Every structure is written in structure tokens, then in C-alpha cells.
Amino acid sequence: MNRLLPALLAALLLAGCTAAPKTPVPSSAPSSGTAGAEAQTSPAPEPTPSPTPLPANWHRIQPAQDGTVTLAFTGDVNFADDWYIMERYRSSGRSSFADNFSPDLLELMRGADILLCNNEFCLSDRGTPMPGKLYTFRASPFDAVYWYDMGADLVSLANNHCADYGTDAFLDTLDVLKDAGIPYIGAGRDLAEAQQAQYFVVGDRTIAFVGATRAEKYILTPQAAQDSPGVLYTYDPEETLEAIRTAADNADFVVVYVHWGTEGSTTLEQAQTDLATAYAEAGADLIVGSHPHILQGAGWRGDVPVFYSLGNFWFNMETEDTALLCVTLEADDSLTCRLRPCLQSGGITSLMTDPDDIASVLDGLSAVMESGSFAPDGTLLPQDD
């Protein structure tokens, strides 16, 4: 799919995307300029060694603030071309995809050192809808540029819609994201790739991201295997736990982004709480969920925060509460998790600013909290607080 790269880059320029993934740390290079005869007669300096190239799943970025790392997370996002919310955007007259988000929300999304979103569709112009599925989602390969508008730095493909149009479209999705420079987790051409974490070196800390899914009542999305493509299943969690342990060996902080739970329900499945415990014991430092299409409560596994569902972030034309999760890692390794309530309505997702609206969302979540509680500003508090 390398043929897509020039077209994607051209589309980026035409779209006026100003929020590409954060600028990598520039590598050191000796100056090639000289000034005057004295400079010309001076001994040539020893060349500066080039930095050792990072593996493809490692990324070096400069934090916005020294000593602090900021992470942000959304729930489900859907760019499917024939789906209601995308049709509304294309008929709205809005000049940029970024206009689908309130300016204050977009500032938070783009301002995070790392923003992770759920890519709940395939990116391809091939394939046919998977038999037996009520809803199937496919977006044009050129729609990948919208991740830049949102400020996304990586996406999760560990969900029940990334393979909706068959193997060819699934493999196209991997290629399109790779060619667009958007790392993904939770899926791959084989099990090894699906288990592979994405690592971000931010200042002097390494953050790892692992994705997995157990979202289907009738399991149709293919499971990645030793020699076949698919997503990382966590019905039996052992392969996910192996991925978490590997990430923990290589990183200072491990995020698990998991697709799980019952659609439309705030009641947690036993599997969610059991898996959260297993993930924490394997080395996860933060667990973030999606799939139920609504907000679910949060909780703790020891000192590991768990957000069970962030809901639909930009997904359909329903009016629904959603949220942006903002996480800050301080220089002293302290961790703050703040849920920023939002509203998806009429094809636009906006940050809530009215104190009563914010309190209503947080109070509703507090009623179904698995443990802990929310402060009035959305900060997750330990159970003892």
C-alpha cells in the first residue's frame, strides 16, 4: 500500500491539518557551515555519531513540559463513509474535520503529549460486509488524515469493527495507518504484531501501550494467530498478559486499552473486573476501556486506576455523554487521572463547561463506581478519600 502514501500526504496538505502527531526529538547533527579563513584552517571536528535508530514500534517525542508527561484518551470513533455522523459532517459545510469538536476540547486533545483513540472501522476501498453482522463500518483510506485533525498519536484496532469488510480490507487498514505514520495497537498480520506494544520515549520515560478485545457476544472478528491476521483476543487473557509483561519489562509505564463490557449498560461484567485485576498483576499501570457506547464507572486495582468505558466520543448522531480522559505523570512519578465530561450531539463533540452538567455526569458515574470516587473537577480519587 505504499502507493497510498503520496496521496495521503497530499490530502493532508489540502485538508490543512495542523495537528500531526507530535514533533519527534530532532537528532543531533554537526553544522556544515564555515566562517572565515581561521575556520577553514582549523582541524575538522570529529563527526557527531548519529543516534541509534529506534525500532518501528518505538517513538521519541519531546514533552510539552520537562519532567511531565500528559496522556489523553477517547472512546469510540467512527469515520465510516456511509454512517450517519460522517454524512452529517460532509453535508454540514464545516471547512475542517477539526470543527467537529469544540475549540476548548480540541485544545486538550492536541495539547496532550500522547493522544490514543479507538479506530472503530476499517480503512479500505475493498471488501464486502462481513456476513452475520448488523453494522459494518468502512472508511476511505483518505479518511486516515482525520486522525491528524484530532491530534491523535496512535489508535487501537482491538475492537469488533476493524475487520468488518474481510481480510483484504483489514490488511489495507494496517497498511494505510502505517503509511500515514499513525501507530496502532491490538491488531496485526500475525499474533506477534497484535501483541506488540507501541512505545513512546517522552523525555526520560518510556510509555508503552497494549490493546486487546473481548467485545463480541457472537465472535466474528478474526483472532490473530501465529501465521494469520486478526486482533488480540482477551477472552482467554494469557496472550494479553504476555504482551503486558513484555511491555512492563521495556517501559516505565504501561497502558492497557481494552474493548470490553456490555453495550448500553453501566453494570460491569465480572470479566471486566477479573481482567482488570489480572492486567494490574501483570504490570499494567493504567487500564482504559471502550465498547459499551456509554460511560461506565471507574475503580482501582491496588494503585492501578481503571476506567471501564469512555463511551462514544465521535461515533453516531445520538446525544450522549462522553469524556476525554486526561492523565498526568509528574516528575516524582505521581499520577493524576482526570475525566473531562463531554457531550456528543448533532455530529459535534463538545467539552462540558457548565458546573451543573459536569456534576450530573460525575454524580451518575459515582453511583456506579466499582471503587474510588470522583472529585468535583473529575479527578479520580482513591477509595480512602
From TrEMBL:
It comes from the Bacteria. InterPro entries: Capsule_synth_CapA (IPR019079), CW_Biosynth-Accessory (IPR052169), Metallo-depent_PP-like (IPR029052). The keyword Ribosomal protein does not apply. Residues 44-54 have a biased composition (Pro residues). Residues 22-59 are annotated as: Disordered. Residues 26-43 have a biased composition (Low complexity). Keywords: Signal. PROSITE patterns: PROKAR_LIPOPROTEIN. Residues 1-19 form the signal peptide. Residues 70-317 form the Capsule synthesis protein CapA domain. PANTHER family: PGA BIOSYNTHESIS PROTEIN CAPA (PTHR33393:SF13), POLYGLUTAMINE SYNTHESIS ACCESSORY PROTEIN RV0574C-RELATED (PTHR33393). Belongs to the CapA family. This is CapA family protein. It comes from Gemmiger gallinarum.
